[in-house]
Amino acid sequence: MKKIIQIVLVVIIAAASVFCIASCGDKRTDTDTQVKTSGAVESVPAKENNKITITVTVVDDKGESKDFEIATEADNLGDALVEAGLVEGENGPYGLYINSVNGLTADYDEDKSYWAISKNGEYLMTGADSTAIADGEHYELTYTKE
Q1: DSSP 8-state class, residue 46
Q2: What are the φ/ψ torsions at residue 103 (nearest 5 degrees)?
Q3: Which residues pair with 66 in a beta bridge?
Q4: Contact assessment for residue 35 and residue 75, using Cβ atoms and an 8 Å cutoff
Q5: Number of Cβ within a 10 Å radius of residue 126
């Protein structure tokens, strides 16, 4: 009889635990989504709720710079830049590899040129896809040649 009572108690506790976990889970809706992003392009609108704005300075092959402001709901720099139409690239083993920015292509295989990504003047050690963004941040995409 003690064994049956123990089994019933274990089943009741397990059921209560499952119920608590299910009822205490993530209750955010689409309108509650928290965004940690920033991107760049001349005033690209996003949905009214959850958008953030980032500034991206593009420094071209002649050293000339142009600022772009991106409003986005993306949570990483790569998605924000692609969404805004500022960059083109391809997905590789480390995420988005940026080939072209604002129409200017860098081809490492051809002339050892590439797009360097920095934040507030400091070179990033992460790729665009793995760089979380937040409202008000400033990034730079710089045409670089070895």
Answers
A1: -
A2: 90, -5
A3: 58
A4: yes
A5: 14
Helix, strand or coil for residue 13? Answer: helix
- Whole-structure pTM value: 0.66
- Distance separating alpha carbons of residues 103 and 62, to the nearest angstrom: 14
Q: Looking at domain 36-145, which of 2.170.130.30, 2.60.34.30, 3.90.180.10, 2.40.50.1020 is its CATH number? A: 2.170.130.30
Which residues have C-beta within 8 Å of that of residue 58, sequence separation ≥ 6? Answer: 40, 65, 66, 67, 68, 86, 101, 102, 140, 141, 142
Q: What is the pLDDT of residues 46-95, one digit of tens each?
A: 445 689 999 999 999 999 999 999 999 999 999 999 999 999 999 988 89
5 pLDDT exceeds 80?
A: no
Give kind and range of the element (H or E) at residue 100.
strand 95-101
> Rounded CA gap, 96 and 84, in Å?
15
Domain boundaries, the chain: 36-145
Q: How far apart (Å, rounded) are the C-alpha atoms in residues 142 and 116?
A: 5
Residue type present at position 72: T
